[in-house]
Amino acid sequence: MIPKGDIPGVCRDCGEHITYSKKPMQTHSDLLKKHRCPKCGNFALKTLSTAL
Fold first, then answer.
1. E strand segments, 1-52
2. CATH architecture, domain 7-47
3. How far out from the chain centre does Cα 49 lie?
4. Residue boundaries of the structural domains of the chain
5. Please, which of 1, 9, 39, 44 could form a disulfide with 16 given CB 3.0 to 4.6 Å?
6. Chain centroid to CA 8: how far?
7. Per-residue pLDDT reduced to its tens digit, 3-51
């Protein structure tokens, strides 16, 4: 399950909006590629954060 937090994200397949948190040395893509969308179950999560 993806860690809950305040960084916005979205599923590219179903459009479900999520929020998540990450560790300081972890990249957004490394975190999101390991987790499934909570709605459709696909590995299609993408960050909406502008502070990369």
1. 7-11, 17-20, 45-47
2. Single Sheet (2.20)
3. 10
4. 7-47
5. 39
6. 7
7. 999 999 999 999 999 999 999 999 999 999 999 999 999 999 999 998 7
Residue 24, both tokens: 């300081």
User: What are the counts of helices (DSSP H) followed by strands (DSSP E) for the chain?
Assistant: 1, 3
- 9/11 Cα distance (integer angstroms): 7
Q: Give the pair of three-digit tokens for residue 42.
A: 């696909």
Around Cβ 29, how many Cβ atoms within 10 Å? 12
Q: What is d(CA 41, CA 36) in angstroms, rounded to the nearest whole number?
A: 5
Which pTM value belongs to this model? 0.84
